[in-house]
Design a protein that fits this description.
CATH class of chain B: Alpha Beta
Structural class of chain A: alpha/beta
Largest sheet of chain B: 4 strands, parallel
Radius of gyration of chain B: 16 Å
Oligomer: heterodimer
CATH architecture of chain B: 3-Layer(aba) Sandwich
Number of strands of chain B: 4
Largest sheet of chain A: 7 strands, mixed
Order of helices and strands of chain B: HEHEHEHEHH
Structural class of chain B: alpha/beta
Helix content of chain A: 25-40%
Shape of chain A: globular
CATH topology of chain B: Rossmann fold
Number of domains of chain B: 1
Strand content of chain A: 15-25%
Chain lengths: 1036, 157
């Protein structure tokens, strides 16, 4: 019996898990309780630290999940019952009645327009309204309406049915009942996400009392251009534009007495983001203040974002906590009495809006779900991880895995990393149930393009999105006058299933050989239409789009006539290009079922284990004589207290158990790399022996370096000034905390040495010197783990009777269990003193004391210390990064670490196909995160390696050998090494050959080829010039 | 009626009004600037309706021939927009575009066109507002310059 995987939760984590499993050839059910997938990320306006539009990067994922042959999305559905065991679960799922026939609904929205009932929209956190028949948000997937039974008039008094009356397709079904489906499931991944605390029970915050006090997620909806205020930042008590906003951090979190003790992990960053975006939306905003406890900008480029928030955007940061929220009737504004926790002073601050960064809570559904799944919850109600030292994705029951915020608060990149890690573990249970997806590159239809063009044009109203601004009928009629156009029509929704059928029919009826759609952006919708014309027997590349929504109706609302003219121009240009389109094929090439993992630290060990377990020939390449990397220097882990040695031994023995597929090279160095995705050849030198290996994929796991503080704080001069790493080695020794420099009673621990070194002026921290030497490379950002390590070490010292004081800038104990460790340390007498970056601590005259300006008391303190520990940051391995950067042509960020393909949604991939990334080579991270990423990167590589062949992209450069001079300009231009000069068959001279598997399709060679022999497919000179020539209307 | 005469009659009536409506051609790279234009749309940032976008994979795809063609075919201004330095999807495509644009700027001057008619702008996928502002600013520049001399020449003017 063929089994599927079940993913519970349709937020970004669940979607990514489903996509990863589906791409690894497993059938997946994606279960979501609300009417659309998308989750929290869909509610966000922008994402930090790039201010990328959240919906723009999410919506392609929604579409991909919806279109994936291996994914069945079950929205409006809940888990009912689970029986059986790992590999063999029987799962009952309740599909709640939508009261709309999903097959009939075309998502046109007329029903909602006509529905007379307005109810608060949960998606907008009830700040805006929806109708009783609704989709939660415009980009909902599936785009199927749902009747909210509780609010529908018909269900209340048996009258109305306006939706049914106006529906063009009779989709509403009032007597639809719930259905229970039974599924054969091999493995389950729980990705339930979070709830957000609403402090109605805490009157001191004023929430629910004053309408101008709102939560961060509510403000997020207000910032959204498609949200309840259209992106305007307005007061809630009256619709006046807000002039001042205060953001308050840690509301209900980091608080043992009233709230949850843990850190919610994302609030500092999202509050900064909300402040920056608010200012962008309303340039008149005068005052933006963030009240904070510690600024936890722990991720890649987060500190840089923090600096820019202060310097470029003028956001004020005030260390303080609200003592009381009230209202000033004179000014008609919220009054916040904030206690400056630095000085103890009470400062009154007034604001038009108070935005509360409230605690992230476990999803309310967790309890019920835990019972049904028979897995454990932790003390807070998140799902319990079986062994947090060794894996963050294993639940307490075999065959059930955890991802994303199901185990605790996380930001998006950390969540999707766990998606891939959970998918990797789940995949191992599903090996007997793989289903091949036929490659879409096979058998592309050809044979129509040589005939004179016969173009069909479809112009979209997009409901009212285009139609309310552009005269769509006029545009469609105009299209009929254009050269080669033999058919033109306008549709309410060109992307609807009904229109796809119309397009296929029209292609046959009118013998079309080119299709143009004038609607939205090709970046999301081109694949849909390409697939449609392919189904009708046309080569999918005989298709072109005119973007008359994003580039026209949405941005020229007030200029309807000009917008219509522009739509005509864009369509005319698209038709001109279409007439010049040619049929393309996608050459396929073989993929080697083997992989190389570079770096034998914990991340690399995990990646190699996961790959070898899945049956791929795996080469693990380590430069030292021993596996283990940085973990060999560590005594115990901060959060769990587990010995590093124990973890390492168990992970290595797990790896070595898999004998058949594994080769480990020690003392090995990479010499050269050739080939491309699916077919790399690596030359390496392992302990003096030259080796050549052929692999389909490469995982880069080279780890990082610890900062060397030569000359700082007397390091190197005084024996009692040591680094955190040296203390760790000492703690590991048989005689811990005995030092050769003698007695010690008082220790001072200085954090952020060699970390967070970016200039405060907000300028880019890119140190050009990175290329020159390894000696004084620092980390411009936060090293993420030093606070945890410092607190753990301080507790060890304290335990040994050494009074310890930690000097810090911000305590960043954001991780699960870290905040608790911090409280514990403080309660055991570890002293914490905060300093400012501009006033670095200094060594006293004899080196036996540290002088620091205490930010709290503004006092200059001299702390006696016979032991000084420097909490040194994590820095990139500059030379190795440069070496691999050159060999693989993968980019490096301005901080010197490798650059991931996308900071939010692709943390494990590089921009180069077939090369993946994990662990601290990408950025500093904790051991458990490195393990998660190792598994995740292995899964990403498996998706490639599980295929027998891969198709090259169609938009590659091609050479007309008849006119090529063989000059070699292209070989100099291309940074991917795609073109090469080969001897002509005649033996006279050379001709350029472009390897389609290496070509990325940028077209730079085509632009610079002096003979004009090179063209860029889909963007040829002929096509572009045809578009340019159509700029002016040449019709009479 | 031939193409030439049709635009001629239009431009004659235009040139009499001070506030002429320019035609701007914008080449946008797929990864950053085209996405930035999409974001301007999603965010509903309103801007001047006189620009027409042609999508290319990378700003490095643009060559002198395409730019000259654009002026020849009636563009009053040509905008080439790509990823910010360091952000190029193809690593250095935008640097190549910069070299091309410097050459093209000199070239159009020798043809008697104002260098301001050609503009290179870095716009990321997250900069919808900047996209809208860039179009507005460029349209303003071109309006102040008036109709392109190349167009007048092509029309035999």
């Amino acid at each position: 019996m063929e089994k599927s995987a079940l993913v519970i939760g349709g937020g970004i984590t669940g979607i990514q898990t489903a996509l990863d499993l589906a791409n690894a050839q497993v059938r997946v059910y994606l279960l979501e309780s609300t009417p659309s997938i998308g989750g929290r990320m869909a509610q966000l306006d922008k994402t930090f630290p790039t201010n990328d539009c959240s919906m723009c990067i999410l919506s392609p994922k929604l579409v991909e999940a919806n279109r994936h042959a291996n994914i069945t999305i079950l929205t409006n559905s809940e888990l009912e019952e689970v029986s059986g065991s790992s590999g063999n679960f029987k799962v009952k799922v309740r599909r709640k009645a939508r009261f709309v026939d999903e097959d009939k609904c075309i998502g046109c929205g007329i029903c909602a327009e006509k529905c007379p009932v307005k109810v608060p929209n949960e998606f907008d956190q009830s700040l805006g309204n929806r109708k009783a028949i609704y989709i939660p948000f415009p980009q909902a997937v599936p785009l199927k309406y749902t009747i909210d039974k509780d609010n529908c008039i018909y269900f209340k008094n048996g009258k109305c049915k306006a939706c049914l009356k106006f529906c063009p397709n009779e989709a509403p079904v009032f007597d639809q009942g719930d259905e229970v489906e039974e599924l054969d499931i091999g493995t389950i991944v729980v990705a339930t996400g979070i709830d957000v605390y609403e402090p109605n029970d805490r009157p001191e915050f004023g929430y629910g009392i004053y309408p101008d006090v709102i939560t961060g997620i509510e403000f997020e909806r207000m910032l959204s251009p498609s949200g309840p205020t259209g992106g305007m930042v307005l007061r809630r008590s009256d619709p006046a534009p807000a002039k001042s906003i205060v953001f308050m951090q840690c509301v209900g979190s980091r608080n043992n007495n009233s709230g949850v003790p843990y850190c919610s992990r994302v609030c500092c960053m999202y509050s900064m983001k909300e402040a920056i975006i608010a200012k962008e939306h309303s340039p008149d905003l005068e005052n933006l203040t963030i009240l904070y406890t510690d600024i936890r900008a722990y991720g890649k480029n987060f500190d840089d974002y923090f600096h820019r928030a202060k310097t470029e955007h003028g956001i004020e940061f005030l260390r303080g906590y609200s003592a009381e929220v009230g209202f000033n009737p004179k000014s008609n504004r919220i009054l916040i009495n904030s206690e400056n926790t630095l000085t103890g002073e009470i400062i009154p601050v007034e604001a038009d809006l108070l935005v509360l960064a409230t605690a992230i809570l476990p999803s309310k559904s967790n309890k019920d779900l835990a019972e049904k799944l028979d897995i454990d919850l932790d003390e807070y109600g998140f799902f319990k991880v079986l062994d947090p030292t060794s894996s963050m994705v294993h639940s307490t029951r075999e065959g059930i895995f955890l991802a994303g915020c199901a185990v605790g608060p996380k930001d998006i990149p950390d969540s999707v990393s766990t998606s891939s890690a959970a998918a990797s573990a789940a995949l191992d249970i599903m090996t007997g149930h793989k289903v091949k997806i036929p490659s879409d590159a096979e058998n592309l239809p050809v044979g129509h393009a040589d005939e004179p063009p016969r173009i069909g044009v479809f112009v979209c109203h997009c409901g009212t999105n285009i139609g309310s601004v552009v005269d769509v009928e006029q545009v469609a009629n105009y299209a009929k006058t254009l050269p080669y156009v033999v058919f033109s029509d306008n549709n309410l929704f060109t992307c609807s299933d009904a229109t796809q059928q119309q397009i296929r029919d029209v292609i046959h009826e009118h013998n079309l050989n080119r299709v143009v759609v004038a609607s939205c952006t090709p970046r999301t919708h081109e694949p849909l239409f390409q697939n449609t014309i392919r189904e009708a027997g046309l080569n999918p590349y005989l298709f072109e789009m005119a973007n008359i929504r994003e580039h026209c109706s949405w941005v020229h609302r007030e200029e309807q006539q000009e917008a219509t003219e522009k739509a005509k121009d864009l369509l005319r240009m698209a038709v001109a290009k279409a007439a010049n389109l040619t049929e393309l094929s996608r050459p396929t090439f073989h993929i080697l079922h083997s992989a190389a993992v570079i770096g034998g630290g914990i991340s690399g060990i995990q990646a190699a284990t996961d790959l070898a377990k899945k049956g791929y020939k795996t080469y693990l390449i380590e430069k030292e004589q021993e596996l283990g990397g940085r973990l060999r220097d560590i005594s115990t882990f901060a959060r769990t207290g587990i010995k590093s040695k124990e973890l390492l031994e168990s992970k290595i023995s797990e790896l070595l158990k898999i004998k058949s597929n594994l080769t480990i090279f020690k003392g090995a160095e990479l010499k050269s790399v050739s080939g491309s995705i699916g077919n790399f050849e690596l030359e390496l030198n392992a302990n003096g022996k030259s080796q050549n290996i052929q692999v389909g994929a490469v995982i880069v796991a080279i780890g990082s370096e610890v900062y060397r503080p030569e000359g700082e704080f007397g390091y190197g001069k005084h024996g009692h000034v040591i680094t955190n790493l040296e203390l760790e080695e000492n703690l590991k020794s048989s005689n811990p905390l005995k030092f050769k420099f003698g007695e010690h009673k008082q220790a001072v621990y200085i954090l952020c040495v060699g970390s967070r070194t970016a200039p405060e002026d907000g300028s880019n921290a890119a140190p050009e010197s990175l290329r020159e030497s390894n000696s004084k490379v620092t980390n411009p950002g936060c090293s993420r783990i030093c606070c945890d390590i410092g607190i753990k070490q301080a507790m060890e010292l304290q335990k040994a009777g050494i009074e310890t004081t930690i000097l810090y800038r911000d305590i960043r104990t954001f991780d699960s269990g870290s905040e608790e460790l911090y409280y514990d340390a403080a309660s055991k007498g570890v002293r914490f003193i905060r300093f400012d970056k501009s006033q670095q601590p200094e060594l006293g005259k004899d080196g036996k004391s540290v002088v620091v300006n205490d930010l709290l008391t503004q006092e200059l303190l001299e702390l006696q210390s016979d032991l000084i520990i420097l909490g040194c940051g994590t820095i990139p391995r500059v030379n190795e990064v440069s070496h691999l950067q050159n060999l693989f042509k993968i980019p490096r960020g301005s901080d010197g670490f490798f650059l991931e393909a996308h900071p939010k949604l692709a943390p494990l991939e590089t921009t180069k196909g077939g090369i993946f990334l994990c662990g601290t080579a990408q950025y500093p991270k904790g051991v458990h995160e490195s393990i998660t990423q190792g598994s995740g990167a292995a899964l990403k590589a498996s998706i490639l390696l599980t295929q027998d062949a891969l198709a090259a992209e169609p938009n590659t450069a091609i050479v007309d050998s008849a006119i090529c001079w063989g000059c070699g300009t292209c070989t100099d231009i291309c940074i991917y090494g795609a073109p090469s000069l080969v001897e002509r068959e005649s033996g006279e001279g050379f001709v350029s050959y472009i390897n389609p598997t290496l070509c990325k399709g940028c077209g730079a060679c085509a632009a610079r080829c002096p003979s004009g022999a090179i063209n860029a497919n889909l963007f040829t000179d002929q096509q572009l010039i045809a578009m340019i020539s159509a700029l002016e209307d040449e019709q009479p | 009626m031939s193409a030439g005469t049709s635009t001629k009659s239009k431009s004659q009536s235009r040139s009499k009004t001070v506030d002429f409506e320019p035609k701007i051609l914008a080449f946008c790279c797929n990864w950053c600037s085209y996405a930035g234009a999409d974001l301007a749309g999603v965010s509903r940032f309103q801007y001047n309706p006189h620009a027409r976008i042609i999508r290319v994979m990378c700003s490095g795809r643009i060559d002198l021939g395409l730019i000259l063609n654009a002026f020849d075919k009636g563009a009053d201004g040509v905008l080439v927009s790509g990823c910010h330095p360091g952000d190029c999807h193809y690593i250095t495509g935008n640097e190549k575009a910069q070299v091309t644009m410097e050459l093209a700027g000199e070239l159009i001057q020798t043809l008697g066109l104002e260098p301001e008619r050609l503009k290179l702008q870095w716009i990321s996928a997250a900069e919808g507002q900047k996209f809208a502002e860039s179009i507005d600013e460029f349209v303003e520049t071109i309006k102040n310059l008036g109709e392109s001399g190349a167009k007048a020449q092509a029309q035999g003017g």
